[in-house]
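Pilot study result, target chain (344 residues):
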Amino acid sequence: MTSISFADLVTLLERIFVAHGCSAPVAAILAANCAGAERDAAHSHGLFRIEGYLSTLASGWVDGSAVPVLEDARTSFLRVDAANGFAQPALALAAPLAMARARETGACVVAIRRSHHFAALWPDVEPFAEQGLVALAMVNSMAVVVPAGARQPVYGTNPLAFAAPREGGIVVFDQAVSTMAHGDVQIAAREGRSLPPRTGVDANGAPTDDPRAVLDGGALLAFGGHKGASIALMIEIMAAALTGGAFSHEVDWSAHPGAQTPCTGETIILIDPSRGGCGSGFAARVDQMLAALLNAGQTRLPGDRRFAARVNAMTKGIPISTTQLNRLQAWAKGPTQSPLRTYL
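Predicted structure:
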């Protein structure tokens, strides 16, 4: 085991993405996103994802050089066509105007379609909260979650991320509507670990704790049964129907073997909290709520574990195995003929 600085990891990942077909601007955004997740010990969305990105780029399913288009910027509802590229560059295009509109009018909606999102969702909202805005983001994905009482998957894991300013920082959470993130199921399969009870079903709809049975024709369950499934439905409507993107069950990459990134949609809602009833005292009120949680016995707040890992990594470096570092360095030299693995 060794370590690598955050800056050096970003540089290495940029080289990898460029070598595998991304434009320099897209590579820079994806590299910062993946390196940030690894820095924060969010391993299911960090270096674990690189192989899936490269496999998808090689399949031709995603355009790594796509230039997003801001189609409608007349009001506080911004519509962006990601042009079959990644969602993060589309959001980066809209973000400055979205923040300006939120401050001018009190709120702004960003609706992105034809976008591939394969990463953690908290990086999409954290920067807005750091600028004093409340931010909510939602993304649908490929159909891997079975609705309550149904027989086959219809929903994606459909993550929802929220961030708000607090005194001296932000509070943020990022969670899927499924009982477990799909990436964590893949990691369990790779490591040969069983899943917790009531996580998923196999191809026949029977409960299973075998991650490979979930991945090979099975499905995840929504957390909280029909309650989590209702949130999944809301995100399908908000991230796909509202944006003009594909529903999770409409994602069809069968013509692109190796594709792993879902091409769907994303919606981001920004709110200027100074327009609310607390005015400039919003951050202090958020802190009062967080203090109540700690006083009640809650041992850590949403985001605390990631923030602690971030501080540690920025001081001591990001832990990485020599084998993994060698693989990254090999990928930075360009595509090879060796097939990529299904379970990373």
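One observation from the pilot: Residues 1-59+304-344 form a domain with the Hypothetical Oxidoreductase Yiak; Chain: A, domain 1 fold (CATH 1.10.1530.10). A full batch analysis is planned for the follow-on phase.
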